[in-house]
C-alpha cells in the first residue's frame, strides 16, 4: 500500500515536471476564475445580514448585524412570489425545449448545404443577433409594436381595416413575443455549437451508411442525432442549472417595464431589481441570488443523477 502511494506521488511529480509549461499557461485562467467566480462567493454572507454602509464595503459586511433568514422572508412572503416563480420556471422550461430542438434542426440543415460559401453566410446571419444587446432589441421590438407608429399597427393592421392593438397593455400577446425574441437571439449561437459537434463526426460512418443504401434522412436519424446526444444532454443540463434565473435584459427591456404586463413578464430577477431600486435592500437582493443559486445547483445535480441512472456515459459528471 505504501509502495503504491509513493509510486503515485512520484508519477504526479514527474507529470508536473514534464508538463510545467502547460501548467504555467494555465495559471492566468485559474487566477481569473478565482477572482471572478470564487472570491465573490464570500459575499453570500450578505444574504444573512442586515447590510448597512458602515465604512468601506468589507467593513460594512463584517460590522452589519446577523439576522438569519429574515432577508429570505421578503421573497417568500410577497403576494407575487407564486407568479414570478411560475413565470421564471415556465419560461425557462419552454426556452430549454426550443433551445434544444430548433438549433439542432438548423445545425443539421446547415450541415446539409453543400455550397460552403452559402453555409458560412447563413451561419454569420444567424449568429449576428447573439451580439445585439437587449436594449437594441427592445427598440427593434418597439419599432414593431408601438401603438401609433409601430410597423405592425401602421403597415399591417390599419390597412386591413383592423383596429390598432395596444401591445404594451395587452398581456396575452407577450409570452409569444418574448419567446420569439429569445429564440431569435440565441438560436444562431446554439446552432453553431451543434454544427461544430456534427463536423466532428467521422465521415466514415456516413460513407458506410451510403454504401449500404441509407438515405440522407436515415443517416441523420441513425448517425447524426445519436452522435449529437452527448452535447445535447450537456447543453440541457447547463440550461437546467439556470432554470430559476431569468434573462434580465429580455424580461425588463423588451416589455419596456410596463406595469400592465407584469403578470406575464415579471420574473424573479426583474422583481428583485425593482425591489432593490425602491428599498435599497442589498441583503434582500443577495438572499434572492443565493436562493436561485442553491435551487439551481440542486436542480443540476438531480437532472445529472437521472441521466447517470439512464446512461452513465452521457452524464455531465
TrEMBL record:
Keywords: Cell membrane, Membrane, Transmembrane, Transmembrane helix, Transport
Residues annotated as domain ABC transmembrane type-1: 85-303
Keyword DNA-binding carried by entry: no
SUPFAM superfamilies reported in the protein's UniProt record: MetI-like (SSF161098)
Residue spans crossing the bilayer: 20-39, 89-113, 125-145, 223-244, 282-307
One of the GO biological process terms: transmembrane transport
Localization annotation: Cell membrane
Membrane protein topology class: Multi-pass membrane protein
Pfam hit, one: BPD_transp_1
GO cellular component terms given for this protein: plasma membrane
Family indicated by similarity: Belongs to the binding-protein-dependent transport system permease family.
Protein's name in the database: Carbohydrate ABC transporter membrane protein 1 (CUT1 family)
Organism the protein comes from: Anaerobacterium chartisolvens
